[in-house]
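Box 4.2: Ligand-aware structure prediction
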Amino acid sequence: MAELAADQHVRYIVTVEKKDSFESLVMEHIRLNGAYWGLTTLDLLHKLHAVDAAEVVDWIMSCYHPESGGFGGNVGHDPHVLYTLSAVQVLCLFDRLDVLDIDKVADYVAGLQNEDGSFSGDIWGEVDTRFSYIALCTLSLLHRLHKINMQKAVDFVVSCKNLDGGFGAMPGGESHAGQIFCCVGALAITGSLHHIDRDLLGWWLCERQCKDGGLNGRPEKLADVCYSWWVLSSLIMIDRVHWIDKEKLAKFILNCQDKENGGISDRPDNAVDIYHTYFGVAGLSLMEYPGVKPMDPAYALPLDVVNRIFLRK
Ligand code: GRG
């Protein structure tokens, strides 16, 4: 089997930020998500020190909106929960939550809860189970879950469960591995996994493994490296990960590497990007690949970081 080209991936991540690169341009509007993907990968590979922590923290805080309490995807961009979670996660990596006005950030997130328990992503009101997960994950990392109506939040997520055992973006929405991660993660964080039929959902999830060993996100779709994370993390949370052929999956991920210049792509021979590099390495972490730190499947952060947050409290 091919080996993980860890050094090349580290080099790729620290150079991808070059202002004039194509990737940097197309990621301009989601730079905070990119920071979370790249920096978490560095940490998983024991190389977080390859970047200047103070510089990163300063930049993160330059995306903060003190009036609302939320973070934008880049400097001067509007706040949204998608970037607020990434900001909190990166600060967790560096153990620098102290730079936050924690109650202000938590109030921003909590203020986006709707009457039916769902969450909007920002002031414009779009509702999606992604935002339920993000709100619960952010508030939990900040030790502020008490600021929302948790029962209603759980009830909304449960109302998005389908007959096939999976979950969609809203009630009646098609089951999709990405949304399943969000809903299973939300239920795990709130201690509500009893709402899941583990065998039914586990069956749907393990059927995502394709002949090439990779995982897809829903029936009849092509495998994509990112589902290594969305599917495996969900299977781990419901204790059914042994239903996947891990060796075939690891081989699929490793075959998507650019072994010379670093980075991982969605499928073999495609162009690499920071998103797939992160989810490829994260998938390997969930399969206990040697040299990669273990990850927490619900919080999507290295386990030592999550332990530091919850054991120190
Ligand atoms: C902290 C890890 C973490 C996540 C934060 C944003 C978020 C919460 C979760 C996103 C979950 C999600 C919906 C992932 C799927 C992303 C994806 C590859 C979508 C592509 O959808 P299609 O329909 O692709 O284009 P398929 O593979 O179905 O053809």
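In the box above, the bound molecule is geranylgeranyl diphosphate. The chain is about 45% helix and 0% strand.
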